[in-house]
Amino acid sequence: MTGQQLEQCKQKLLQMRAELAARQAASSEVGDTGTVVLDQQSVGRLSRIDAMQSQQMALESQRRRELVAKQVEAALKRIEEDDYGYCLECDEEIDPRRLLFNPVVTCCIDCADK
């Protein structure tokens, strides 16, 4: 991997980190993950089910954002430690095109297919 390709991956990772932080901030402002009120006088049963489904979808989105954020941080740490771009399974170099497409990948194509 060339220095230019490494820098492109690093910039993409930093951009991903910023986007995830912005989404997290926007999500916490909306507050979709709060407790669903079960007052039958103010909300019908179908509305409560819809609210509960919406809450679960928001929680899953938050979980996925946290997972990707951890992957981004791990990739940035590997860059700092000069260990970025090598498969964690077989220790072979990962194709730079694969890393440019998705800079958080940790395995080469061969090991990912196993």
TrEMBL record:
Zinc fingers (dksA C4-type), renumbered ranges: 87-111
Q: Which domain of life is it from?
A: Bacteria
Keyword Zinc present in the record's keywords: the answer is yes
Read off the Gene3D superfamilies from this record. DksA, coiled-coil domain (1.20.120.910)
Q: Does the keyword Metal-binding apply?
A: yes
Per UniProt, the keywords (alphabetical) are: Metal-binding, Zinc, Zinc-finger
**What is the protein named?**
Molecular chaperone DnaK
Entries under SUPFAM superfamilies matching the protein: Glucocorticoid receptor-like (DNA-binding domain)
Q: Which InterPro entries match?
A: Znf_DskA_TraR (IPR000962)
Q: Where is the Zinc finger DksA/TraR C4-type domain?
A: 83-114
PANTHER family annotated for this entry?
GENERAL STRESS PROTEIN 16O (PTHR33823:SF4), RNA POLYMERASE-BINDING TRANSCRIPTION FACTOR DKSA-RELATED (PTHR33823)
